[in-house]
């Protein structure tokens, strides 16, 4: 009788059709049945609080509402997502501590994939003005991946959104690429088939094209994809109103012809010529573009304010119970419903992905082919344990004080003839200080210790107005401190497969982020902890101060 019970269970399981795994071959995406997969998506995230400020020209939100954590909301919205005919939603910020089962399973059962951005507002993203790739950020990304790893409908994880926004900021691409490398290694170690993506702002071809090529290239020149993104996203708002392929997309199409990995429009839907007709859908999913682009994500389901104006396809009643759709919704639904993108090439003729060598840096694209090392939590924790003066914040919300304190401590060290070079990295020169991968709070302990040791262990010099505590177990001479620090950090220079932190391992950072916001073409320019370090680097060079070399 045992067999028949199993047979019945098997039949029941089979009757709920599981969502198909999506994989890439060459530069295309395919479902398990061998058909090409095109993303027909919509951005799905209620906008967080936006503080209008001259320092926030792109109106980036300062907090977020996890769109996949409230089952009531997902149940409310699912019929509308189905009416739109989407097969994917993009979520810009999610909270790894919350439960996503209801939303993720509901979407999966409806055949809807998710594209999950790993970054968070404020201190949870790669900072375009002062980039670093540090243990706290890697651990945040890993925690998010772990909390979504049980779902079968995570199409991709984005390691960044619009981190690079201009030629003079292309050095930050080295950090994006390092993040993609480490996230990819982590996903591989978990046998996850989710893709690693990046979503780029649109821009001048002289830096946009090399950036795309750089993110998908092999710096070692041996056709390895280990440091390459799997999926390139372009936030493209070129098609406005009643445009045409020729006038809006032909140039972009030419720029990306032959691109080596799958690509899609990670945002589209210009609002400058209302009403939105969404006629770009016809072009994007046609043979004019299908050789490069695997579809796109329309921006945005929820209302969203950006520097360009007001987006959105629905409004929600004040009590959160009811959805009202607008003309944007109806038009997009019609357009999505009327396209049938070409089912070519076949998967067998798509080949494997080639990874060309990386573009040579020049004046419009400056990122080095020497990437930051994998952030090494064990090394940074070892360092922290051996530092003689430790940052011990008296507030839970210390992300706002790390920056000013780093600025202050580095200025003291500078006045005494030392420097903060060990904390700094530079994606243009490809040089990364021995502590540049540590959490900013560890960086701060390091600089505090530098100052404390340099003043012959004067207890006052570890106070920092009550933010520092003397570690009596630490080495108390500069040479012993150097030996201990060097020993901790000796393994922190290379690339390795990261592991999940053992629990409570990561502690906060203070660098404010770019990119995680749910808004079209967003950016941020707040001062950041590591930015302060950069400012202080100019001060002095090593003398009697204790400085790691
Ligand atoms: C994530 O959710 C937890 C649990 O509700 C909450 O304590 C925490 O503040 C949230 N984090 C963010 C950044 O919203
Ligand atoms: C890049 O150029 C812009 C405008 O020209 C300027 O505001 C910004 O500070 C520059 N960024 C860097 C990192 O030099
Ligand atoms: C830099 O190289 C890229 C190709 O990688 C090219 O498109 C761009 O025009 C070059 N810029 C300059 C200033 O030469
Ligand atoms: C868009 O173009 C079509 C075809 O040329 C035309 O019928 C329609 O009126 C135009 N709509 C708007 C809003 O410009
Ligand atoms: C989920 O959303 C509904 C509708 O907006 C709201 O009433 C409810 O409080 C939310 N639940 C949680 C746990 O936030
Ligand atoms: C944390 O501190 C920053 C600045 O120091 C402040 O802007 C922010 O509102 C604080 N957050 C909370 C949750 O108190
Ligand atoms: C990185 O190095 C380049 C080239 O030396 C320099 O122009 C740039 O200012 C440096 N960036 C930082 C943040 O120090
Ligand atoms: C810690 O440093 C911050 C920033 O400089 C300062 O506002 C605060 O008073 C200091 N002391 C304590 C106990 O937080
Ligand atoms: C951001 O800062 C808060 C403290 O204000 C900290 O709890 C959190 O871990 C930080 N996040 C990251 C990714 O560093």
TrEMBL record:
Keyword Acyltransferase: no
Subcellular localization: Cell envelope; Cell membrane; Membrane
SUPFAM superfamilies on file: (Trans)glycosidases
The protein's enzyme class: transferase
Keywords: Disulfide bond, Glycoprotein, GPI-anchor, Hydrolase, Lipoprotein, Membrane, Signal, Transferase
GO CC annotation: plasma membrane; side of membrane
GO BP: fungal-type cell wall (1->3)-beta-D-glucan biosynthetic process; fungal-type cell wall organization
Chain residue ranges for the region called Disordered: 499-518
X8 domain span: 387-490
GO MF terms held by the record: 1,3-beta-glucanosyltransferase activity; hydrolase activity
Membrane topology: Lipid-anchor; GPI-anchor
Entries under InterPro entries matching the protein: GH (IPR017853), Glucanosyltransferase (IPR004886), X8 (IPR012946)
Pfam families: Glyco_hydro_72, X8
Enzyme Commission code(s) on record: 2.4.1.-
Primary location recorded for the protein, binned into one broad class: other
Span of the signal peptide: 1-18
Family: Belongs to the glycosyl hydrolase 72 family.
Function: Splits internally a 1,3-beta-glucan molecule and transfers the newly generated reducing end (the donor) to the non-reducing end of another 1,3-beta-glucan molecule (the acceptor) forming a 1,3-beta linkage, resulting in the elongation of 1,3-beta-glucan chains in the cell wall.
UniProt name for this protein: 1,3-beta-glucanosyltransferase
Native organism: Serpula lacrymans var. lacrymans (strain S7.3) (Dry rot fungus)
């Amino acid at each position: 009788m045992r067999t028949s019970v199993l047979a019945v269970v098997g039949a029941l399981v089979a009757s709920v059709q599981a969502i198909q795994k999506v994989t890439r071959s060459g530069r295309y995406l395919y479902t398990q049945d061998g058909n090409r997969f095109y993303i027909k998506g919509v951005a799905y995230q209620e906008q967080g609080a936006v503080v209008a400020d001259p320092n926030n020209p792109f109106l980036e939100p300062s907090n977020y509402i996890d769109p996949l954590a409230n089952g009531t909301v997902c149940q409310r919205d699912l019929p509308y997502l189905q009416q739109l005919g989407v097969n994917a939603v993009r979520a810009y910020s999610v909270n790894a501590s919350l439960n996503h089962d209801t939303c993720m399973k509901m979407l999966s059962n409806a055949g809807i994939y998710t594209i999950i951005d790993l970054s968070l507002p404020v201190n949870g993203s790669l900072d375009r003005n002062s980039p670093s790739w540090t243990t706290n950020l890697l651990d945040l990304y890993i925690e998010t991946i772990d909390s979504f790893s049980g779902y079968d409908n995570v199409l991709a994880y984005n390691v960044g959104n619009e981190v690079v926004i201009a030629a003079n900021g292309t050095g930050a691409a080295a950090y994006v690429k390092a993040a993609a490398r480490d996230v990819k290694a982590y996903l591989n170690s978990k046998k996850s088939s989710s893709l690693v993506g990046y979503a780029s702002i649109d821009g001048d071809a002289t830096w946009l094209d090399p950036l795309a090529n750089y993110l998908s290239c092999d710096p070692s020149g041996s056709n390895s994809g280990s440091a390459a993104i799997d999926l390139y996203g372009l936030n493209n708002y070129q098609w406005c109103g009643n445009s045409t392929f020729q006038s809006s997309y032909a140039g972009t199409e030419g720029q990306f012809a032959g691109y080596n990995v799958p690509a899609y429009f990670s945002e589209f839907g210009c609002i400058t010529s209302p009403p939105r007709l969404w006629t770009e859908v016809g072009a994007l999913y046609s043979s004019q573009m299908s050789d490069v682009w695997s579809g796109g994500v329309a921006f945005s389901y929820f209302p969203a304010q950006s520097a360009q104006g007001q987006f959105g396809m629905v409004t929600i009643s004040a009590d959160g119970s009811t959805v009202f759709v607008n003309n944007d919704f109806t038009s997009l639904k019609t357009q999505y419903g009327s396209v049938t993108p070409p089912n070519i090439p076949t998967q067998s003729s798509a080949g494997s992905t080639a990874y060309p060598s990386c573009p040579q840096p020049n004046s419009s694209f400056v990122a080095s082919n020497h990437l930051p090392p994998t952030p090494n939590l064990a090394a940074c924790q070892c360092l922290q344990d051996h530092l003689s003066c430790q940052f011990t914040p008296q507030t839970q919300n210390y992300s706002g004080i790390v920056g000013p304190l780093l600025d202050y401590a580095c200025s003291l060290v500078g006045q005494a003839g030392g420097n903060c070079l060990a904390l700094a990295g530079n994606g243009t020169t490809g040089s990364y200080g021995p502590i540049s991968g540590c959490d900013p709070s560890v960086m701060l302990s390091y600089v505090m210790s530098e100052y404390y040791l340099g003043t012959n262990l004067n207890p006052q010099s570890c106070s920092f107005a009550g933010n520092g505590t003397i570690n009596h177990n630490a080495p108390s001479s500069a040479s012993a401190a150097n030996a201990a620090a060097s020993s901790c950090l000796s393994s922190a220079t290379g690339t390795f497969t990261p592991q999940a932190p053992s629990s409570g391992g990561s502690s906060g950072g203070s660098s404010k982020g770019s990119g995680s916001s749910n808004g079209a073409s967003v950016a941020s320019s707040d001062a950041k902890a590591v930015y302060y370090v950069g400012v202080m680097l100019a001060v002095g060079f090593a003398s009697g101060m204790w400085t790691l070399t």
